[in-house]
Amino acid sequence: MLEKLHTLQAEAETAILETNDITALRDLKVKYLGKKGELTSILRGMGGLPAEERPQMGKVANEVRGVIESLLIDRETALEEAELEERLQLEKLDVTLPGISQEIGTAHPLNSMIEKIEDIFIGMGFGVAEGPEVETDQYNFEALNLPKEHPARDMQDSFYINPEMLLRTHTSSVQIRTLEAKKGEAPVRIICPGKVYRRDDDDATHSHQFTQIEGLVVDQNVSMSELNGVLFAFAQKMFGAGIEMRLRPSFFPFTEPSVEVDIYHPEKGWIEILGAGMVHPDVLARVGYDPEVYTGFAFGVGVERIAILKYDIDDIRQLYTNDLRFLDQFKSV
């Protein structure tokens, strides 16, 4: 039996030291020291030994167990350390290497332009009003002095949903809604930004949908000269203090007199940037303002047109393509 114990120890030592896998090492522990292991099997034979030999045999058996347990612990520790070192080498990170750059987004040039225009007019005391993009014929046309069959409706070929509902062709409808809600109270000083829609062929300078910011001032003693001053201040803040601006007579059903506003471009000459005029007395009367007491002016700015001039864009469609090569140019705007 003593020989069996020494043979078992030698065999276990060899097997443990040659094992390079923690799972296999744990299987060896069960094999040699488990309840049904080889050491237990040898110890069961101690019952057949003479009584005087049993203490000595028990002592040797405990020494063998201790040696095997120690070998198992040392080998497991060594294997765990080797596994950790291997993982550290695989996951090694050089903190001195440059980081991976992250693309940082920015506001779309149209949104930037809307915010810039809003900031300019807010700085002149205007508030911001909004309204629905799906509008009634009443608010989009009739309340603006454009009754049915009016020939000027052809100027704004529209997307109708049904005979009385359409996609708004301008944000003037927001002006009417605001005046109606004010119930004849003054002053009114607002801008109305938003999308508008017209049946148009898309090309380098036209789009079936575009962004408009309209302005409205209604109060006592509002004059054409005040309109001129507000628009010139806007042009200076948008294009620089040296900008030249002129007003040309025009026609809009909801303003009288009406004007087109041009600025001078060194390379392109005079360029139209917006339409404006004094609010027609009939429009004021329809929403509860006495035209004998109150006057007002209105104007409409095409945001895309301003962006094209400001950023020297040659095709309006570029503003809607989401081409990152184009949009990246405006990160510093």
From TrEMBL:
<dbReference type="Pfam" id="PF01409">
    <property type="entry name" value="tRNA-synt_2d"/>
</dbReference>
<dbReference type="InterPro" id="IPR002319">
    <property type="entry name" value="Phenylalanyl-tRNA_Synthase"/>
</dbReference>
<dbReference type="InterPro" id="IPR004529">
    <property type="entry name" value="Phe-tRNA-synth_IIc_asu"/>
</dbReference>
<protein>
    <recommendedName>
        <fullName>Phenylalanine--tRNA ligase alpha subunit</fullName>
        <ecNumber>6.1.1.20</ecNumber>
    </recommendedName>
</protein>
<keyword id="KW-0547">Nucleotide-binding</keyword>
<keyword id="KW-0030">Aminoacyl-tRNA synthetase</keyword>
<dbReference type="GO" id="GO:0005737">
    <property type="term" value="C:cytoplasm"/>
</dbReference>
<feature type="domain" description="Aminoacyl-transfer RNA synthetases class-II family profile">
    <location>
        <begin position="111"/>
        <end position="309"/>
    </location>
</feature>
<feature type="binding site">
    <location>
        <position position="256"/>
    </location>
    <ligand>
        <name>Mg(2+)</name>
    </ligand>
</feature>
<dbReference type="GO" id="GO:0000049">
    <property type="term" value="F:tRNA binding"/>
</dbReference>
<dbReference type="InterPro" id="IPR022911">
    <property type="entry name" value="Phe_tRNA_ligase_alpha1_bac"/>
</dbReference>
<dbReference type="GO" id="GO:0005524">
    <property type="term" value="F:ATP binding"/>
</dbReference>
<dbReference type="InterPro" id="IPR006195">
    <property type="entry name" value="aa-tRNA-synth_II"/>
</dbReference>
<comment type="similarity">
    <text>Belongs to the class-II aminoacyl-tRNA synthetase family. Phe-tRNA synthetase alpha subunit type 1 subfamily.</text>
</comment>
<dbReference type="InterPro" id="IPR045864">
    <property type="entry name" value="aa-tRNA-synth_II/BPL/LPL"/>
</dbReference>
<dbReference type="Pfam" id="PF02912">
    <property type="entry name" value="Phe_tRNA-synt_N"/>
</dbReference>
<keyword id="KW-0963">Cytoplasm</keyword>
<comment type="subunit">
    <text>Tetramer of two alpha and two beta subunits.</text>
</comment>
<dbReference type="GO" id="GO:0140096">
    <property type="term" value="F:catalytic activity, acting on a protein"/>
</dbReference>
<dbReference type="GO" id="GO:0000287">
    <property type="term" value="F:magnesium ion binding"/>
</dbReference>
<dbReference type="InterPro" id="IPR004188">
    <property type="entry name" value="Phe-tRNA_ligase_II_N"/>
</dbReference>
<dbReference type="GO" id="GO:0016740">
    <property type="term" value="F:transferase activity"/>
</dbReference>
<dbReference type="GO" id="GO:0004826">
    <property type="term" value="F:phenylalanine-tRNA ligase activity"/>
</dbReference>
<dbReference type="GO" id="GO:0006432">
    <property type="term" value="P:phenylalanyl-tRNA aminoacylation"/>
</dbReference>
<keyword id="KW-0067">ATP-binding</keyword>
<keyword id="KW-0479">Metal-binding</keyword>
<keyword id="KW-0460">Magnesium</keyword>
<keyword id="KW-0436">Ligase</keyword>
<keyword id="KW-0648">Protein biosynthesis</keyword>
<dbReference type="InterPro" id="IPR010978">
    <property type="entry name" value="tRNA-bd_arm"/>
</dbReference>
